[in-house]
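for ur thesis appendix - MFS transporter permease. copy paste whatever u need, i formatted it the way the template wanted (i think)
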Amino acid sequence: MTQSLIARLSPEIKQYLVITGNYWSFTLTDGALRMLVVLYFHQLGYSPLAIASLFLFYEIFGVVTNLLGGWLGARLGLNKTMNIGLFLQIVAVSMLALDEQLLTIAYVMVAQALSGIAKDLNKMSAKSAIKLLVPKDQDSTLYKWVALLTGSKNALKGVGFFLGGILLTLLGFQGALWFMAAMLTITWLSSLVLLKQDLGKKKNKPKFNELFSKSRQLNLLAAARLFLFASRDVWFVVALPVFLASTFGWDHWWVGGFMASWVIAYGIVQANAPKITAKQGSNYQQALKWVAVLPVIPALLALGLWVDWQPKFVIIAGLLIFGAVFAVNSSLHSFLIVKIADSDGVSMDVGFYYMANAMGRLLGTVLSGLVYQFYGLEACLLISSAMLVLASLFTYGLSKRN
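the 3d part is after this line
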């Protein structure tokens, strides 16, 4: 029955399912790995700034990978870049599974650098491939496919956070990592067999000097994306998990479970963004409307914490509201870049855009540890609000241009 159903699917749908399966598997282990590293090194007594530094190379190499990865995808094919990403993640996870005495900050940063390269090769390949599988001028279908891929990925990332907390408790740090390496190896071997050859390969091999976008439209969208994701990570990556563990006294299960639940709900909203934004004007106008609301939310959260009014309620309720609005913004952005990107060598435009995304994550991650350690969560939230004002200004420029 299942085989008969699969046989009737179009080649495009089959490839979409393979790409989505790869992306899901990778994302599950990536979320678990992040939570494992944050909780394990917090447990060892590392400061928030030291924990943030463990992700520094992860984010720096994400910037480089998106730029070069888009170029490589256009030259080699997206199937190859996706499979390279899966293999590098297996290597990175295995490196961290060695004797814990070897896990110096420098060593972990190198392993995280490989993981950052792997993550962005995988994401760039998956997002770019959708452009090639959906017929031209079918924007609503493209929006739905992008939203489904992005939303399901983030829901699974949330499951990964929860999985990281459980695995750390049940199997320990090393046992959890070997378990994830085995999962990734199965996915990688399956992908080598099933993923179509030369997907997304540019007709004429792109030159190295074509890496940077010459489109003002794409540059404005990329700038808005940079500040959008920096605004989230400046309080979400390091500051929030450490705040929950130290201020609220939550254990690994509670921190992992709470972060997981938030990201799962965030992913569900992302996947349903096309329904939420239906009949609200052009996609550019929608992007402006939704981002303009965001700066108010972290500012109100900071005010609530500053006056010490029911901090648990403020954090939980504020996170839910912020996550829902942010998820719609993220889905709209992910759709717009795939829509704007040139079909021939789509990975170059998508890679440039996600380079800006990675720069935002890098900025947010560094500030998350630095600002939290010296000034607390309230300061992280205020910086988040300021960044969202900048994201709104760039989105305004984009909507006016279109």
